[in-house]
Amino acid sequence: MDARRVSRAVPRVRQVGFFTPNELPQQPGPTRSQSGPPNSFSPPLSGSPASNFLSPVMIPPPRHLSDNLGGRTAAVPVPGRENAGEHATVGSYNPSESVLGLASPPSSRIGDGELSEGTESSLGWYRRSNSAKYASSFPGGGFDLSPVKQPESVAGVEAKNPLPEKSEVQKEEASNSKPLKAKTTKAERCALQESQRATKAASKVEANKSGTSGGAATSKPVKQPPQKKDGPPVASSIAASERIGVDRLAEKERKKDVPPPRMQFDDESRVGKAKRRSVLNQPEARNRVELFRHLPPHKNGTQLPYLESKFFELHEKHPAVYKVGLQYLTGDLSGGNARCIAMLQAFQEAIKDYSTPPEKTLIRDLTSKISGFVSFLIECRPLSMSMGNAIRFLKSRIAKLPPSISESEAKAALCSDIDRFINEKIVLADKVIVRHAATKIRDGDVLLTYGSPCVVEMILLYAHELGKQFRVVVIDSRPMLEGQKLLRMLVSKGLSCTYTQINAISYIMHEVTRVFLGASSILSNGTVYSRVGTASVAMVAYAFHVPVLICCEAYKFHERVQLDSICFNELGDPDAIAEVPGRVYVNYLDNLTDKQKENLELLNLKYDATPSYYISMIVTDYGTIPPTSVPVIVREYRKEYLLI
Amino acid sequence: MDAMAEFVVGNIVRRVLYIIREEDLSLTTAAMVGLNLSAVSDDEDDADRDDQPVLSATAIATASRNALHPPSLQTLLEDVPDSAAVQHTSSSGRDSEGKSKSADKSSRNRKLKHDVVEAMNELIQDVSTCHEPIVVRVEHIHQKYLFLEVILTFGSSRTVLQFLCVAKERKRSFLVLVAEGAPRYQGHLLAKELVTRGLQTTLITGSAVFAMISRVNMVIVGAYAVLANGGVIAPVGLNMVALAAQKYVVPFVVLAGSHKLCPLYPHNPEVLLNELRCPSELLDFGEFSDCLDFGSGIGASLLNVVNPTFDYVPPKLVSLFITDILWSISALLIQCGDAMHSPVSAITVSH
Asked: Do residues A108 and A115 lie in contact, with contact meaning Cβ atoms separated by under 8 Å?
């Protein structure tokens, strides 16, 4: 294989990302822009794309931090929805602007000519983020605020850098592979194909449900070796084994009757397998709490430069998916609805750019591809249950496609299905919930909310618009301090608010008349799985005889059951606990000796489970229900997904 | 730490007053005992009686009145002339007695002061070593309750720190879960101390307490003050922990030196026995300053930031108090508190 690669003397321009065979190499900005950035061999330059992604987060002064917190609210509010709709039509998920639109001034990888532009655009983004926070919550919204001339600068970049040094290996682009294949000797290729087909047949026997998924995996290396130039050869073989393992995991995910047991990370053999096939480096098991060894450790944003460098090695990842994954990793996107919408739109992009390889059927191949995306996203950050449900929906839609359908029709159908899912299950559901819940607010109420649930934010704003007189108490907690986003939102609209931390909840609960909480998911025994601290709030409210209302869309319901917060959870960044940003004199945990460090464990839980007896009522798009009715809805309305 | 002074200083002052009264009472009763003796030997040689303090009937009446209604400190310590007036109205022919009386009075005062200072030294000693009797109890607790267990604690308390260190010395294996007490982050301090002493510690946020409480075997906390009904004034957030512990039936143990027992009764404790701290601990300066501005035209700001220092834990949520004089449920503690502060009904409950 190496001999073949070396024989080529002239480096060729790579086609990057997805494209259909008919289109010219003159791609729209998005795909080409990915090749624009120079190779990752020079760390300082590769650091700059990282800073692009991290620039909303890593602005040191707290003033900017809070601005960006507002700028990247996870809420998907109704007033922002119009903007979202526009953005969806304009370029529903425009990676170019998202990648380069946030070019921070110091990172001048665009080149000196565009430096001023980049500076202006980024500053403009910041300024606009101050004023248009409600719109910027939508994942595409924040990025579309950057000036339109950005793609032109991108094109200018491409003109300057025609040579991508790193090889960009695509998926099954047959047209691309054909001219490359001609360069290899036919005999060698046939031999390779035979060996691949043998393994494919073997794997087919094993993986009965998704037989060709294994085949798709083995067929990939066929394409990869001819196309690879300088890229490490190791990656392809890893990718091959990765495919098989991943698809078996994917087929497990597809079992619909019983939710699969989660991967337990204290199982040595499986952890070893996962490590081998993972894209991200698993962080070292330092300071891992014994009780939570079964959960995947947190992957923090320090991996970002490494991931950027690996961008061009990731053959099967569509850049939109990759981008979303990185946003999850850094925490730019948080909140169930926002993550779900971003993921679905990335899948839409991927589907639009997808083309069926010659020997494959669209259904199976696309399903396997989606599974590959999902595994990558899981590596970046474990899926929320809402995302899991959305993925199940998508896969069921793909499976339901009639086999005789043409590719373009299939793609159009799937894209419209995704749009409909987003509209019905999220956008319209939110509107219904807001209407129902606003009837529960009376004049003179003091409403308490915790964290920053997007639905509750919408409810409060809507009730305020209706003219109801009420006060809001916003409870916040470390280390995420999400409540500040909500607080800024509400105060800017003129609601009178009280702000405090979760420790003071007993103090403030005397005045409160209603508690509105959001949820990441509601399980079949009525347990509410949501941000850590929600359980404490609900418990204290119950002790003070204050009714607790959970506002949650029905697509987040899940048939799993959970008794406590420990058997399934998500671990966050442990260092976020040790550091107290902005207040140097309380950083007691700096400068620990090693001996001290080995005794100290830091635990940063993301979620907790609130028992159902603390909940008075759940407001969903199917109406207001008691917690005991959740399994009914899961059972009855789950069929909807399949019958649409 | 400054906030502690609010309750404990008051307690100490009351203790000192009590000491003074008690000393005075003991001196008076001793004098009365002496008087009775001398009354018996009334017919004895007068000359002998010059050396002893001799009290007339009125003086006896005064003394007994003093025993029932404690005189003010002023009278005790400053030799106010009402007792001197008593002397003057006493029967005649007692000038020598009056002189000796005043001499006795001053010597009595000197003795009183001496006794009071001694007692106060003892008090100081008690308070500074209040940890020791408490941590002695560790042994009992461990034998009964702990083996490879998880203890939850909150904020930072020296008593709890010493308690856990002694437990470690006794070779009990346990894991400590420390909830950081935002916004003061005292939990970080405690965690640092604990790991320095080699204890296995996990630091969690205050919001994760309910999530973890199902795996906790015991909650051990310190208190700022223990009130007359057995309620506890504790760092903010502890009521949440206590409710969670009650839910999961986890023993909630409060360690407090006896100097923390207050005779106060909690009427509306969240407001009256609380202190609000600076909002900048929650929101940085300048972040929401446009909303916090009280000077704006409306007069009332849109945003109100609340940062209380203390939390009130009702007595029914506390399983056990461990103090340096006893460990008990709250009911007995009330009586003990009374004993320390009021001169009436000294009930001593010994362990």
From this structure: yes
Any chain B CB within 8 A of the CB of A535? yes
Residue A87: closest CA among A422, A498, A351: A422
- Domain edge (last residue) among A394, A425, A456: A425
End position of a domain, from candidates A392, A425, A458 = A425
Same domain, A444 and A581: yes
A626 CB within 8 Å of a chain B CB: no
Say if residue A381 is in the same domain as residue A336: yes
- For A122-147, the pLDDT digits (tens) are 433 333 333 434 333 444 433 333 34
- The Cα–Cα gap between B124 and B117 comes to 10
Beta-bridge partner residues of B310: B235
ipTM of the complex: 0.73
**What's the number of domains chain A is made of?**
2
Strand order in the sheet with B320-322: A600-602, B201-204, B174-179, B149-154, B218-222, B252-255, B320-322, B327-328
Using the predicted structure, report yes or no on whether residue A300 has a pLDDT greater than 70.
Answer: no
The one-character DSSP state at A622 is T
Whether B283 and chain A come into contact, CB under 8 Å, resolves to yes
Here the CATH number for the domain that contains residue A531 is: 3.40.50.10470
Cβ distance A484 to B287 less than 8 Å, yes or no, reads yes
Q: How far apart are CA B221 and CA B7, in angstroms?
A: 18
- Residues A596, B192: Cα–Cα separation, whole Å: 8
The range of the structural domain enclosing residue A500 comes to 440-586+599-641
Q: How many residues does chain B have?
A: 351
pLDDT, tens only, B196-242: 888 888 888 888 899 888 888 889 898 888 888 888 998 888 999 99
Give the domain CATH number at A338: 1.20.120
Closest CA of chain B from A63, distance in Å = 6
Residue position matching structure tokens 């405090």:
A500
Which residues lie below 8 Å from residue B109, measured CB to CB, with a gap of 6+? B76, B77, B79
Together in a domain, A369 and A396: yes
| Interchain proximity A599–B199, CB inside 8 Å | yes
Spell out the domain ranges in chain B.
123-296+304-336
Q: For residue A242, is it within any domain? A: no
Asked whether the beta carbons of residue B208 and residue A608 sit closer than 8 angstroms, the reply is yes
Residues 6 or more apart whose Cβ sits within 8 Å of residue B348: B339
b/e map of A186-197 (b: 16 or more CB within 10 Å)? eeebeebeeebe
Cis peptide before A283 (omega within 30 of 0): no
Residue A558 distance to chain B (closest CA, Å): 20
If you classify domain B123-296+304-336 with CATH, what class do you get? alpha beta
Q: Give the pairing type, strands A623-625 and A617-620.
A: antiparallel
Concatenating the DSSP letter of every residue in A198-255 gives: HHHHHHHHH--TTHHHHHHHHHHHHHHHHH-SSS-THHHHHHHHHHHHHHHHHHHHH-
Parallel, antiparallel, or unpaired for β A470-476 and A445-450? Answer: parallel
CB-based contact A450:A502 (threshold 8 Å): yes
Q: pTM of the entire structure?
A: 0.65
Cα of first residue to Cα of last residue in chain B, in angstroms, is: 30
Out of B207, B274, B286, the one facing A536 most closely (by C-beta) is B207
Q: Is A130 on the interface with B (CB under 8 A)?
A: no
- Residue A115 falls inside a structural domain: no
Displacement of CA A601 from its chain's centroid (Å): 28
A126 domain residue, yes or no? no
Three-class SS of residue B233?
A: strand
In the predicted model, is pLDDT for residue A236 greater than 50?
no
